[in-house]
Amino acid sequence: MSLLAMNNVTTAYGKAVVLQNVSLKAEEGEISALLGSNGSGKTTVIKTVLGLVRPKEGTIEFDGKQIQGMPPYQVNEIGISVAPEGRKIFPEMTVVENLRMGCFHEERKEVIQERMEEIFGLFPRLKERRNQLGGTLSGGEQGMLSLGRALMGMPRLMILDEPSLGLQPNLVERMFEMIQRINQEWGTTILLAEQNARKTLEIANSGYVVQKGRIIAQGTAAEIAENEVVKKAYLKADKIIR
Ligand SMILES: Nc1ncnc2c1ncn2[C@@H]1O[C@H](COP(=O)(O)OP(=O)(O)OP(=O)(O)O)[C@@H](O)[C@H]1O
Ligand SMILES: [Mg+2]
Question: Where are the domains of the chain?
């Protein structure tokens, strides 16, 4: 059984249908990629899973239970967290306060402390800057904070919406290394939405390509990398690879 399964999901904003008949899965312990260019529908897939928009049709299963229509706080409670598009850290809050927001359901101080130490183990840089305001961190540090905040809830599924966007090339490299490390060392299942197809396919087990709200290709990472449409549209020129 897959940890997450979207089955024939159609999502619309008002009358504008944005996702059509989307089916995808995230297998437990794996990194699943969701590739697609600007405006293809990646964030909408994520918002639909998170309960931020309600699908018009179709079902979403998490750990075998249907979750479509569940409110976002509850989706978070059952073990799905997100590092959203644009990172969206809280600029006026410190690193520690930002991390605390990642597990707002948890009230036991010792549990919060323990988790924070684990995150600091993964990102020593955040520990050094623990009392610094989020808005004063560098882009790369904000990326770590966004990942760290998503991990604070000890999610079974972590969804990442374009974590490499806007980072300098050397930081992009490190971001993908961190994602792989989280998956391997923590065993966290990851759904990774990206435009950087080459880097993503290097660390993903399997993936999907979304175009104009439809899944146009799917398979193992190796299969997708060899897919002619994907090669042409996403792996050809350096301009797309970033
Ligand atoms: N709130 C909204 N209301 C109406 N249309 C929307 C809304 N949000 C997104 N869309 C449209 O839905 C389509 C898919 O957008 P979405 O943000 O899911 O794409 P994306 O793949 O995440 O793109 P990007 O890589 O630029 O983040 C786009 O055509 C977009 O204009
Ligand atoms: Mg997006």
Answer: 4-79+157-241, 90-154
Q: How far is the CA of 39 from the centre of ligand 1 (A)?
A: 5
Q: Is the pTM of this model over 0.90?
A: yes
Q: From atom 27 of ligand 1, which residue's Cα is the shortest distance away?
A: 38
Please report which ligand is nearest the Cα atom of 212: 1
CA 96 to chain centre: 21
- Any atom of ligand 1 within 6 Å of the Cβ of 44: yes
Cα pseudo-dihedral 81, 84, 87, 88, rounded to 10: -90
Distance separating alpha carbons of residues 207 and 204, to the nearest angstrom: 7
Ligand 1 in reach of 85 Cβ (< 6 A): yes
Taking only the tens of pLDDT, the chain with its 242 residues reads 899 999 999 999 999 999 999 999 999 999 999 999 999 999 999 999 999 999 999 999 999 999 999 999 999 999 999 999 999 999 999 999 999 999 988 889 999 999 999 999 999 999 999 999 999 999 999 999 999 999 999 999 999 999 999 898 889 999 999 999 999 999 999 999 999 999 999 999 999 999 999 999 999 999 999 988 788 777 655 444 44
Q: Would you call 94 helix, strand, or coil by DSSP?
A: strand
Superfamily of domain 4-79+157-241: P-loop containing nucleotide triphosphate hydrolases (3.40.50.300)
Q: How far is the CA of 107 from the centre of ligand 1 (A)?
A: 36
Distance 133 CA to ligand 1 centre (A): 30
